[in-house]
Task: structure prediction
Amino acid sequence: MVLSRPNHVDQRKIMSSTLSPGGALRPALWGLLLAALMFSWLHNALNLVREWTASAEESDTAGRPNILLIVADDLGYNDTSVINAGGLPTPRLEELAAGGVTFSRHYADATCTPSRVAILSGRYPERSGFRPVGSEIPAEYATIAEHLRAAGYRTYLTGKWHAGEERRAGWPQNKGFEGWFGFLNQFELSPEPAAGDDAIRRPTYFNPRLRSDGGEPQVHQGHLTDLLTEHTLARIAEFRAQEQPWFIYHAFLAPHSPIQPAPRYRARFPDTPEGAYSALVTQMDDAVGRLLDAVDADNTLVVFVSDNGGTNLQRDNNYPFHGRKNEVYEGALRTPLILRWPGQLPAARRVDSVVMNVDIYPTLLAAAGAAPDTGADGVSLLPLAARDIAPPQRQRGWESYSANINSLSFSFLDAGGRWRAVSQDGMSRQLYDLAAAPQGADDVAAGNNATLAALETAFWREHWGKSLLPVSARPGAVPGSTLYEGFDTLRTPFRHGFAIGIEIGPLAAQDARSAQVLAQQGDFWELRYEPGHGLLWRMGEEELRDPHFDPHSCNAVVMTGYLQPRGHLAQRAPRSPLKLYSSGLLRDVRSDSSIELLPAGAALATPTQVNLGGRALFANMVLGAFADPYEPRVAEAFFDYYVAAHRDGSLAMADVAALDRMLCRDGEAPTTH
Result:
């Protein structure tokens, strides 16, 4: 990691730059804003009509195809000869590409979980709270399996889920899959360590424990890649005997670690780490070939994609691109994507336009003749793949939150696909000109400060758009109260980051003279006003206070925290900080609260109630301020550097001021989707 003093962008200026001192938009900007919005709306509407009409025509011609979605795990750009001539030989993937369309500039996410959430939901994973970990895909975001099942498809998952597992509501059988065989995450493939054993539970390919339809894991004899492939082959044979179209999502673990190819493949390669890795990729490639041989090629849309770049541990997985899995550079995000649909898509075609993993979702809907999901972030790739009709240019940000430093790693690609801004581990800002040096290894920030600042400003705007929750609101039974519902695992302080902004006051004279419940969510938490004492926020056994509450004024109150469960490979004990702000100032904090996380079976759908004419905003991100106490949990060599970055405001941190400025202002909060 390069440690240098970064430039940074003040998020407070981003949110206030278009506001007058009173909080309203400057009048001179209204006309420009409305004109821009109208142009943007017309442009997007025309694109939507054009793409949808074309997709509908293709679907009418082809009927409804079967759909086989194959996802590789950690397969880098250089791990297949399909898109990189010097990559590992993958003849069956080459065969797939020869019959279809290969996208050479496909962007996924930097790790497994957010990429799978993006593929399944068609939305940027941050909207579902995954940075990169999260609880589950919200019920409000129907998965591709739910859409296709509603459209009359059989739906099945084989392999790795890893898209939310803390509640059964987030498991595959409750996300549109009528059946599944596999594992929620790779750590449950192996047995629990023996009692008293200090060993960490780690994945395995040999004799793995697998679930059927959400049941308890059972040991299956054999190699994981073989077991999953045989199971999908059986489902294809079963479904082909029926007239109903089918959708199978086959998610390999290969070539994710541990690098454990079957002995029959291992014996064919040198006894080196790269040899073992090559064997695992070759075994996966052969398995892909067996799946291709089993389907009715003329009536099956096959999609092959990798969830993120490789680790660069056994070989240079992502050559020629800089970066690796878990980072936010080009090599971590750029992965293979292939579509084959004979008769509907051309053969042996290569597309160099920017496309994204969120595009797979609307592409499958369009191919199936299903209505488009207008809330999705992705666009159908069928017009681009079939007739070279390019999708509208889109900017995109990637985020990864690190609780130990309370900071974001982020990357932002401009709409033209030329510039990438990067802040790895929340520290030094870098800028890459991908038109001049596509590898993304040459930092040109020093000579392009204005470009870097503009990209960071755009990143924080997009960040807030993905963080704010579009909950529903309705009047409560109590006069002056409002009930907020939806996005249950994000609106409720359940796991990971949350923020609740309450706008309350001025209170009526009679209300200001007595204790009042200002807001609450069942027994989960309560915000009270006590005359002479101010605010009391009670959550579990924790109590945070604000003596500065003024019942005669409008108060902007923000309750935020990060509820950290223990990770599978946790190196530190979990820490769950809670903070209470008002008027943008920290009033009370529990840096390491003793709060007990809610059980998975808790009634998270319980509405949030705000009383006395107040209103609420919700975000799926922990917030902070640079004036707060700060104690990063890092190696001693980096401690002072992070403290200095926090002190001078250059650490990449979601600022509470951005939410505070949306409260006690004229007009509504910014709209999100």
About this structure: Residues 51-63+73-244+253-387 form a domain with the Alkaline Phosphatase, subunit A fold (CATH 3.40.720.10). Confidence is low (pLDDT under 50) at residues 1-6, 17-62, 667-673.
